[in-house]
Amino acid sequence: MARILSLFSLLACICAVQAALHHLFASSKYRNTIATLEFDDETETLSLAKQSSTLTQHSSIAVDHSRKFVHAAFDYNSSVLIYNIGDDYSLNLNLSAGYALQASACDPLQQPLKVRVLSSPYPPYYVYSSVHSDSRYCSIVNWALPDGTHADTWRSVESDSWRLDKLIIRSDNLTLYGLNIGSQAMITWRIFDGPDGMINYNFRESYFMDRDGVNVVDMVVGPKQFVAIREGSNEVLTIGMSEEGFAPGHNTHSVDEIEFSSRQTIVPATNDTTPRYKTTSLEASVNRKYIWAASPALTTAEGYEAGFITVYGVNATTGELGTRLFQERLDSERGYSREDPTATIVAAPFADEYVAVSSFPAGQIEIWKVEGDGAWLKYVTKWEGGAECCSTIMWVD
What we know:
By secondary structure, the chain is mostly beta strands.
């Protein structure tokens, strides 16, 4: 009996060690705040831990690799603010850091401006930023150390249609991609193999084929393949990749046309012509075991529906997109009461099986998990932040 009790005690200790608290930041779309949420993976609860005041609203945030700083987009004056992360996960504005993204090549950048930030998970862990103006087709991308230094280097892209909407980095840390949603194009830079994270002046501009008004809005980059989603048609697409990291295609009128290798429908087709869902986010898990897609529901004549969360497998040998494994309804008790709903998936940094999904304007964050060694998809819990939440979410740990 004593041995049995000792065994149970040992198992309890092991479980206690495995259980951990994890944290997320969620920025508000309309208020000057960033919420710190705490997720307990043992009790499976998600709760508000801190509410930090910010200088402005932040449409895009990034946590640096050291988990000491948050780089936050300041759209109004095309800059990036830096907040120090406290021991209690509160945020404090670092007045001596931060950096502007204006550059003479694109002056004057007129309102409205959109700033995006991306923290590289690969050495030397630079934070890349981009800004563009809806009124002028010119974009700027620059890079800085996590503490905000060395931010005086930049590259500009100016053409008839260029607006950088999203930045993506390849795992070799030698290739940076910019996605232009409006003109359905992708730009590829080479990153110099050195400690300063600089990207070269030359870039390669490629356009997606079948540009029929159905936008490619998000993309993940694998070792040998691009995986993208089309918002209107709710498709997941695969695109081949050259050894140099480029998307192969054929040259038409002096531009590269990117061909899709395959396509799969993400959400169930409807019999009517009115779209009911809009796939807005794609994310690969931390070790690229799964690829996740979020498809919020649009307002329909019948009322509000729940959107979908979809999980695809990844070939362990080739790293390529596999078949669809799971699809479940997102939890949306509040209903999507405004236009332009979005759902954003953020993969957990601590396990392939967890993701967080923020729904705007439903104003909630959901936690989902692949359970049973890949046997089923489980809705874990949620936090309701109200109609002003959440423009951006980001895992800290």
